[in-house]
Amino acid sequence: MVFYKSNEYNSVIDFRLSNVLSRPIPDQKAAARSEQLLLETYSVSVPSSSSSRNCEMTVDRVSKDILTLHHPATLLQIYPVLTGADGNCLYRAMSLALTQSERHHVHLRLLTAIEIILHTNHYDTSSKKYVDLICDNRIVVCSYDQLVKEAVILKSFSSMCHMYALSAAIGEPVRSYYPPQFNAEFVSEPHTRKVVGRGVNKSSPPVATIMWSQTSFGDTFNPNHFVPLVQRNAQNDAEISVVNVDDDDTSADAFVDLSDDIDVHNVSVHEVERDRESDGNVNDSREESKARGDIDECQMNETKEGVVENVGDHIDKPHPLACGILNGNFLSVEELISIFENPNESKSLNHIPSGLKENVVFLLKNDPKSDSSNDSKRSFPDDCGIWDTKTGTSPKSVFLKTNDGKLKLIFLRKGHYHFQKKVKGKMTYEKIEPQPSPSNLVTIQRYYTTLKKDKQYRKRVTCKLETDSQYSICEYIGKFPGLSSHGNSKSGDSEYVRTPSAVMSEMSALLKQKTPLQVYNEMTLKHDELSGPKNKQQVRDKKKNDKLKDNPTSGNKQNLADHIAQIDNLVTNNETIVQSVIRNQGKAPCLILYTEEQIKDMKNICCTGKSILGVDKTFNLSDMHVTVTCYKQVSIVDETSHDHPIFLGPIFIHDNSDFQTYSNFFMHLSTILASTDCSKLVIGSDEEAALVNAITHAFPNSTHILCSRHIQQNARQRLTDDAVSKSDRDTILDMIFGSDGLVNANDSICFDEKSVEIETKCEDISNKFLSYFQKRLKETIRKKVNEPQIACDLESWTNNNSESINNVLKHLVQWKSKPLMDLINAISTYVNAQFKDIRRSIVGVGQFRLSKSHKHFEVSKTVWVSKTDEERSRLYKRCRNFISKDSKTITSTDGQTTVVAPRAHGKKLGQIKRKINAKTTTITKKVRT
Length: 929
Prior knowledge:
The protein is of the alpha+beta class. The protein contains 24 helices and 30 strands. The strands form five sheets. Strands 9, 10, 11, 12, 13, 14, 15, 16, 17, 18 and 19 form an eleven-stranded mixed β-sheet that branches. Strands 1, 2, 3, 4, 5, 6, 7 and 8 form an eight-stranded mixed β-sheet that branches. Strand 14 (407-413) and strand 15 form a beta hairpin. Pfam families: MULE.
């Protein structure tokens, strides 16, 4: 049998490859090489598009309806071409796109089969050397044997793998297009791509766009057919080019004209109505080929003007999901009420569908979670573009059902319903007697708006204002003018479609946990081309707007003056933790923050000597410094460590760090504590001079203690600067700060003795450090470390608690400098949460438990539930006001007796010398001589 005839191409009658399907792979490859050699010997190839004659193409109405429903904007620029549906549709579509004829489809299938058989490693997933061309596990790949069988046998199923093999066979990229679906993450998103086969240049533009379609239109989209997409010339002339989409194009709806890159031909397009069978046979006769779309021979264009019909401008079929068609006017009230009272459940929709909407009505299901009293217009977004909501109206109307079943408009005035009448050219209202029953009233609200691009294109949403209303009605009047760019668009060349509200809500939820870039990438993969985020800037703007809603601040968030103005209003209305805003000439404002609960703890805990009030300045929380106070909350203990937790005390936010600035804060606290005995108050800090002076000035009767760790670090640095060896350095530091060192001397005599020893040691090591010790360090340790420890019976104190609470604050702001209002809100939330933990500890819930001194306030959960809110608050107040007695006790050696330890140790008040009884002597009497 003659398979090919010289250079003239004839369709391949059958595959001899089918005879070797059951044989081993080497036999299949030998047969494929034989077929490849025949093609090369007789120079058989697919003719280029330049050798094709002018032809007439037919619009595929089924594919057009699919695009109208799922992606209507594309119809303004492209149209799907009718293709034979006999199981060879992928190759027919490619033949039609390349040559304007389907007659080469068997040749293309043969080339695809040869490609798959000869290059097993690129298509056999079980091969150890498998090269994954698709790189997406959402696309199901069949076994290699099945793939070869479907490629060899005519009228067999084609998949994405065959498309990659076809791209490799023709040596050019191909565009695969899958209409957008709701489950885009697993369907349309992975199948819409640039298909680059083995050995094909990735940078080359696609030579054709093949659309996944179906042979008949239905409610669900189950593709079983392929058609090529052809681009209509912008000048509306007879030139048509195959659709090619640039990979770098950021617009989802853009189709780039590549007529300069490929050879195009004059074709004309017309639309025909036809039914298509997926398993029909293709007849070579002209009549059947036209009916089935297999145009074996091109027809000359017989139109005089050669104008291609604009399929985007002529839609003679209503939206397939519409529940009714309008005649240019909105429905009457009677028609609306009739739909509400007798809804067609099968025609109801959860949202306004995508697609062209002209003179149609949709019945929409109301979201049960939404409140009809809110802005219902936002509940029904569509893909029509920008609606002019500012000029829209939303009248609310009440109708009375008369006895004859008609509806009459009535008006509510001064609590009573009236009829409206016109008397002598003037509107009057006549009160209805008796007043109608609510069961006879129907209240509806209608929202009217027009499209900004064309005021003749109108939309109306009607809602029935009843609690049991399940539906709303949406109507579209006029001819859709197409999409326009957003009003804020700088380029003005992109078509705007509103992002669905569900997508925006999902975006807000994800932004609370992830970065904008992560959210953009995740949602782009999940949603289809039209419903996903428009760009990265939209996600960033969404995060910014959500923050503004959560933390509303008038003006610029980086403008300190705006924040101070807002804080002034909050302080005036007593709605903030900020208690005072201090303004001094030439200085930035200062803020003092605390709550009544914190002041109560200062009085009950710090002023009674149960905890030291630590003070420390921290940085990088905001544009200003933050001086934090903290203390141990002795009423509760941590469930794990059994230690008292560190609580945040009053806070000072300031810019300057001089004596006057600090005095504003501590004098304010001194005034608040004026009625409280502060003689037992111990305040600890570092050696910052202005801070120390402000504390001692504001609290002269209180004790001030320095952090021994900071003093030790300063002394270590002095010794290092003086080039003292490590062994000598450690010896001196241990003599000063060790457990038996100078800081822990029991009395003044021991202190002086240890000082002499240290000075003697320093004379042999470093004269500079000796001078520093004698002039500054010794007296600092005596007055600010040793004497306070002896007087208040304290151990060596460090400000580790302050450093710990500073670390907590930096975690609150995520280690980033925050605007002032954001920092204040974070501090307020943290402080309130701390005191809520005390309340929870009363019931034994949470991280903390009541300490032994407050254990008698603990109640069971059952008792707590039975108490009223007033009783709970009273119990909590008693617990907070309780001041425990001195808990220091001494237990006997046998463990049988426990007594309270003496606090004064037999010393006089303020005595720091060793307890030594005065020596008594007898006066010697002089003997008279």
